[in-house]
Structures are given as structure tokens and as C-alpha cells.
Amino acid sequence: MVQMQPLEAIIFDMDGVLCDTMPYHLKAWDIYVAQTPALAVTQVKDLSRMGGKRNSELLAEVLGRPVTAAEVKQWGGGKEAIYRELIRDQIVWLPGLVDFLRSAEAAGLKLGLGTSACKENTDLILSHQELGRFFAARAIETDVQRGKPDPQVYLLVAERLGVQPAQCLVFEDAVAGVEAAIRAGMTCWGVLTTHTATELAAVGAEVCIQDFTDPRLQALV
Fold it and tell me: Residues 13, 15, 20, 173: which is the catalytic one?
């Protein structure tokens, strides 16, 4: 367990933490794979264990070989366009999220976002009900050279917030994301939209919550 200094900042992953997007990602992959003969061997069911990773890493794991930048742009971009059409009118925040963000902000905590998503996906989600106004700093797929479980994305958010890693608490739903937070020297709480509490605790999640109505959150704010 990370020995955390007094809490100064809370950093959120996006997919599976702000809202439960994984079903839409999986459906988008199903649709795109069906339209793309080159991806016919893709085991879309395996994608649930690859949450938190960028398309470059995800495609390489699914296909079992390195992928070129052109392939990532073509296949990842095609899938993400479908995803955005599926999710556009279906964005629903996890229960309690907005109230918790307001409470954290009122308590003087800095709020940040660290996601493996592309700019278009991030802009779409954060523009809904102007949720992006809560986040003083953010880092997305193209801001880092290495995706989760590498800690780079979370270290960058902390730097942009002007806080030390040990002063940060991260909310994550993915195994790779929890690993990234722990490697960054941050405390991590798991959100149970994608994995079980056992799976997230095994890689370092200190506490696991179903959503942001969990009473244990009150101690943070």
C-alpha cells in the first residue's frame, strides 16, 4: 500500500470511471470487426481485460503481433468513430459522481483526468453537461509516449496540477490503470465497472467502490 501524504488532488480515469463506457466500446469493436476482413481473427471478448490501454497496445495484444502506426490510425480510428456514435446520446454519469466532484472541489482538492482515450472521445465525454469544467488538468492518449500500465499519464497529470504523486488519489476501473497509478506512487481506489474487487485489489487498489455514492468517500472530502 502506498504511504500517502495529505491528500491534495484526485485524478480520475475516464472510461469506466466517469461513466460505464465499456459495453459501448465492446459493441463498437464487434461492429467494426464485422466490417473489416483484416481483423476477422480478433477476439473481441478479450478486450474486457485490456481496459485502460491505448489502441496501439490493445491491437497488438489482440492480433498477437506488432501493429504499424498506419494500422492503429485506420483501425483504431474506425472503431472509435463507431463508438462515439453509439455513446453520444447514452452518456450517463456513475451515480454520485457530480455530487462528489462538487464536494471535492469545495474541499479545495485539485481535480485531474488521466485517460488512454483519444482527444475526440475525451472531448465528447467531457463536453456532456460541461463535466470538463471540474478538471484543472488532464492528460490523454497523445500526451504520453507510453500507455498504462506505465505511470507516465498519471505523473503528467500530477505535474500539471502542481502536486506530488504521493499527494494524489486515483480512481481506476482497469487493471492496467491501477498498475499505472501504483507505479506512479499514488494511492488508487478501484471502481467496479469492468473488473471485480479481487482483481483490482490484487494489483494494488486500496479500496473498491461500486460508484460515487459509497459512504467511504465522505472521509476524503
Answer: 13
- Alpha-helix residue ranges (DSSP H) falling in 88-147: 97-106, 119-127
pLDDT tens column, 134-184 = 999 999 999 999 989 999 999 999 999 999 999 999 999 999 999 999 999
- 13 is known as an active-site residue: yes
Exposure class string for 192-204: b at 16+ Cβ within 10 A, else e: bbbbeeebbeebb
Alpha helix (H) residue ranges in 128-174: 152-161
| Residue at a domain's end among 87, 103, 118 | 87
For residue 32, what is the enclosing H or E element?
helix 22-35
Residue 160 and residue 86: Cα distance in Å, rounded? 32
* Structural domain for 146, as ranges: 9-20+91-219
